[in-house]
Design goal:
The chain is an alpha+beta fold. The protein has 4 helices and 15 strands. The longest helix is centred in the N-terminal third of the chain and has 14 residues, at 2-15.
């Protein structure tokens, strides 16, 4: 049964399936006959004066989408919820008039039936008709993880590849901001909430986990990445369990 489900899902992404999500104005999908999107239009959210404000707004927006959260893996009914879950992705970018903006979303996915996995495919480029393409600065690659899992090896390789195209940090009115990939998660299914996110910063090698607490946001460094060959995207991860460095911020 699992194999049949994955095959149907894969055919849907190749040929397009009618659903309520297809009518969502926040979402962009490939045109008929196109395999995948090559760019995302903007904006969807913003403008914001700080990257953290834009990040948290994006977290709430993405996790509000249908099937964005399947809850914790130890909750009853998790397998069924995970099978119909969706990843949504977007770019948080910086504009020439000194604002942070979130692009529209896509839920185009790559499904791997053998590994029972799926991931949102984020286009490398944002097109915002208000500005020349080369004037945009790429800050965070955003997506959700339906059950709060850590960032994958593909996530890490993706953002390093994007850093080689767009740069690993950008000068902004709030100072230099380092390129990151972020994966939002919710501990609940419905209604889902922005309970935290995983973050990887290629320039420092830090892998962080941010969780919402009554007193505010708590940061834990969960890993450190060492690159052996950036061209080949070859790396190792040292698992850690400790507080974030002073001054670390989303």
């Amino acid at each position: 049964m699992h194999g049949s489900w994955w095959w149907c899902a894969w055919l849907c992404w190749l040929g397009g399936c009618a659903s309520s999500a297809a009518l969502d104005p926040d979402l962009v999908r490939p045109a008929a006959g196109a395999a995948f999107l090559e760019e995302l239009p903007g904006p969807l959210l913003g403008p914001f004066d700080s990257p953290s404000d834009a990040l948290l707004a994006a977290c709430g927006k993405i996790l509000s989408k249908p099937h964005a959260s399947s809850g914790r893996a130890d909750h009853p009914g998790f397998d069924a919820r995970w099978r119909v879950s969706s990843e949504y992705c977007a770019w948080l970018y910086y504009t020439p008039d000194d604002h942070y903006v979130v692009s529209r979303l896509t839920d185009q996915s790559r499904v791997d039936p053998a590994q029972r996995s799926k991931s949102c495919l984020l286009p490398s480029r944002v097109v915002d008709a208000r500005y020349p393409p080369e004037a945009l600065r790429y800050i965070y690659a955003l997506h959700n993880h339906p059950y709060g899992s850590a960032l994958s090896s593909n996530d890490l390789r993706f953002i390093v590849s994007e850093g080689r195209v767009h740069g690993f940090e950008s000068e902004t009115k709030t100072g230099r901001v380092r390129l990151s990939i972020v994966a939002f998660f919710s501990n609940a299914v419905e209604p889902s909430s922005c309970d935290g996110f995983h973050q990887f910063i290629p320039l420092t090698g830090q892998v962080l986990k941010w969780t919402r607490a009554a007193s505010g946001w708590r940061c834990e460094q969960t890993g450190r990445v060492t690159w052996h060959d950036v061209e080949a995207l070859d790396f190792t991860i040292e698992k850690l369990h400790g507080p974030c460095l002073r001054g670390t911020g989303p």
